[in-house]
Amino acid sequence: MESSPPPRSETPLLFSSAVLVIANVIPLVGALAWGWSVFEIVVTYWAENLLIGFFTLIRILASGGWQREAAPFVAKVFTAGFFMVHYGIFCLVHGFFVFSMLGGGGAKHGTLSGKGIVFALLALFLSHGLSLAKNYFAAGEYRDTNPQAQMFAPYPRIVVLHLAILFGAFAIQALGSPVPLLVILVVGKTVIDLSLHRWLHRKAAAGPDVAR
Predict the structure, then answer these.
(1) pLDDT for res 203
(2) Helix 114-131 × helix 11-33 angle, to 10°
(3) Where are the chain's structural domains?
(4) Residues of 18-36 as b/e, b for ≥16 C-beta within 10 angstroms?
(5) For the segment 82-100, what is each residue's pLDDT rounded down to a tens digit?
(6) Rg (alpha carbons) of the chain, rounded to whole number
(7) CA distance 64 to 70
(8) In this structure, are residues 150 and 65 in contact, taking their beta carbons and an 8 Å threshold?
(9) Contact (Cβ atoms closer than 8 angstroms) between residue 3 and residue 162
């Protein structure tokens, strides 16, 4: 009778969760201290989708570990290319809603500079990158998954998360982007993001499945 593998340590998940919260503090500071509008905050979150897509490509190509045979590698490359197409369409449609329906007040009420958005996205890049390194590679999640699972892995998280963000953003925009509601939007996003992040990684640790 085979013994079950030892449970994976919670330390990488705790670490990546802490970094996720820290990265999400920047839009909160933007709302409180830098006068960011709802448009600017949602644009930052939309751009985060592009980062998620980038790291998903790495996950697809690394899924299942290294194989010497050419066929598995070609299958991974094909899956990565297909992911780029359908995920790119998703980001394009999402961006259309953000820029066309929320963009009207962005230039009037916000102070997000090029440096500001770069700083915010750098923090989010580090958050996703550290999660990849700590959870996917160091904790061994990549060994228990496959390209197809990783191709669809981002959608449960980003669809739920960004539907909540968009509905909240529309409501706040209609009220003139009051700061307390912007804070609620950012805190709410952080709570949902953290909950889904931890759920997906614990699900991955329990068996061959997917994670962020």
Answers:
(1) 80
(2) 170
(3) 11-206
(4) ebbeebbebbbebbeeeeb
(5) 999 999 999 999 999 888 8
(6) 18
(7) 14
(8) no
(9) no
